[in-house]
Amino acid sequence: MGPLLPLLPIGLFFSEHVLQVMWVRGPSMTPYLNEDYEQMQTKSDIVLVNMWGGGGLWPWERKRRLERGMLVTFRSPANPRHMAIKRIVGLPGDQVTTREPCMKEMQIVPFNHVWLEGDAQDARKTMDSNTYGPVSISLITGRVMAVLWPRWRWLDWSGWEQGVVEGDVERKFGDNYRQEVRDRVLKEAVKLERPLLE
Amino acid sequence: MEHLLRRTLPHLTPGAIARLTVNGVGLFCACTFVWEHLITVQLSEGPSMYPTFNPRGDYLMISRVHKHGKGIQVGDVVRFYHPTFLGMNGAKRVIGMPGDFVCRDLAFSRDVGKGGEMIQVPEGHVYLGGDNLPWSRDSRNYGPIPMGLINGKIIARVWPPSKMEWTRNTMELADLSDA
């Protein structure tokens, strides 16, 4: 036991700051994650989450480079005990035309906030920024890197603007995946300046 | 020096170096765990909680067990990730818990309950206010914040020693009995 004892804190550190395995529950990211939620309600995808801050040298440095189309994990603003996975749809300064449960028709994403939405076609199946508004980047904990199970694949968001997700050659999700979501985003509608501090 | 080298070098086998590295990294990770999950000591910053805490020079003990708003009550002083500045922390007093009705005063005003609007704190959010009303940016500016941003509760001032004390919850119900 003695020589193995240091492995316990190392493992904890690794899962909190480097890589973490998470289970995706619910239909909000269907068909991207939990592909056949309609038929198999109990099955949940297992994803690998990159917990390292990103730009920073130290894992606890809270710097992060965020792009549209990324899948991120964050603590739900509506329920602090719940971790959520959603897709970044709008960055600070973007103007988003909202959908179903949102009370406002338009929303400009404020400084240090992002607009997150689930991939579900049906707005009632996802609880996202349309319910709780823009989400502070300080709430974001990690970026989903890969799906481990049931179908192993790396996630790639670089083709999000073209409607190609994870570079799928066979166009599993169609040619213009979620085009109507991108149509609702007006990029860099306003130029945001860093607010004054004190 | 030479004597010291001659004594330690034979023990520095690759195995020993590996074990030393693992122990060192393990110790570092254990310290990080305690710092992030149990207790943090931090220097106070900014005038918003004066006179409870000094704008600078006070070391505060922060219980990280209360992060994400676990066990937080009205009147507790919490530390939270600032909603608009990445990597910054703020410390404010909890004025309203989820479901409470609070009067949202005008930003930086000295008045309490005047010229504002009544709002209900949404599910999973808290309404925060600084003790130094005209010098505090708090929920009057940015509205109720998600409890997920809370990363600890300030439980004590540990330095300077003359001012060492537990942080008092100034909004507890008054006990008016004689006993």
TrEMBL record, chain A:
Membrane topology per record: Single-pass membrane protein
Q: Which GO terms describe its biological process?
A: protein processing involved in protein targeting to mitochondrion; signal peptide processing
Signal peptide limits: 1-20
Example of a GO MF term? serine-type endopeptidase activity
Q: Name one GO cellular component term.
A: mitochondrial inner membrane peptidase complex
Q: Cellular location of this protein?
A: Mitochondrion inner membrane
> Active-site residues?
28, 86
Q: Does the keyword section mention Ribonucleoprotein?
A: no
Can you name this protein? Mitochondrial inner membrane protease subunit 2
Residue ranges occupied by any Peptidase S26 domain in the UniProt entry: 6-99
Protein family according to the UniProt entry: Belongs to the peptidase S26 family. IMP2 subfamily.
**Species whose genome carries this gene:** Aspergillus ellipticus CBS 707.79
InterPro entries in the cross-refs? IMP2 (IPR037730), LexA/Signal_pep-like_sf (IPR036286), Pept_S26A_signal_pept_1 (IPR000223), Peptidase_S26 (IPR019533)
Which CDD domains does the entry link to?
Answer: S26_SPase_I (cd06530)
Keyword Magnesium assigned: no
Per its UniProt record, what Pfam families does this chain match?
A: Peptidase_S26 (PF10502)
The alphabetized UniProt keywords are: Hydrolase, Membrane, Mitochondrion, Mitochondrion inner membrane, Protease, Signal, Transmembrane, Transmembrane helix
Automatic annotation (TrEMBL), chain B:
* Location within or outside the cell: Mitochondrion inner membrane
The domain of life for this entry's organism is Eukaryota
Q: Where the protein is mainly located, per its record?
A: mitochondrion
Q: Which GO terms describe its molecular function?
A: serine-type endopeptidase activity
Q: Name it.
A: Putative mitochondrial inner membrane protease subunit 1
Give one Pfam hit by family name.
Peptidase_S26
Active site: which residues?
Answer: 48, 92
Protein family membership: Belongs to the peptidase S26 family. IMP1 subfamily.
Do the record's keywords include RNA-binding? no
> Mind listing the UniProt keywords for this protein, alphabetically?
Hydrolase, Membrane, Mitochondrion, Mitochondrion inner membrane, Protease
One GO biological process term: signal peptide processing
Q: Where is the Peptidase S26 domain?
A: 27-104, 120-159
Which SUPFAM superfamilies did the record assign? LexA/Signal peptidase
Gene Ontology cellular-component terms for this entry are: mitochondrial inner membrane peptidase complex
